[in-house]
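An instance follows:
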Amino acid sequence: MSTHSLDLTLVGWVGSEVRHFHGPDTTPFTSFRMASTRRWFDRAAGAWRDGRTEWFTVKIWRSGALNVAQSLRKGDPVVVHGRLSTEEWQSDDGPRTSLVVEAAAVGHDLTFGTSRFARTVSAASLDATGDGQDADEVGAPADVSGLVELRDDEQLVPAEHVEDALAPAVGG
């Protein structure tokens, strides 16, 4: 994220179908609508109250786009971190605007349920570099069409560090 930008974290619900866009000359992206409603506890009434619901269009690009498209569904609770901007366009009813969050990170809100994480890497980037680096790190575009799930954690942590990672914390 750059300086002089409006970076924020939103907590809410996926309010539309999650749509994934890709093509031969297009950077892949995924888009969905998100609703966020402020809530507070009204002590006098002894009940939770809802404030105004704010709607945002969330867009995420490149390798994150396919992961989001495969992970989220309408109605899911989500946490989104990204940069806020405004899109303007012309409709039959006149000029329109929409709040858009260009997401850097998207995930399920685990306050409302559980999730199982499955790490993915681009099969093409593994073939291109041979060392597991992302293709973006070596200057090639990321291929998100052939993601492979790594099922063995030993592939993620060098063998000499496995025992260190499994050791209990000192003083814990």
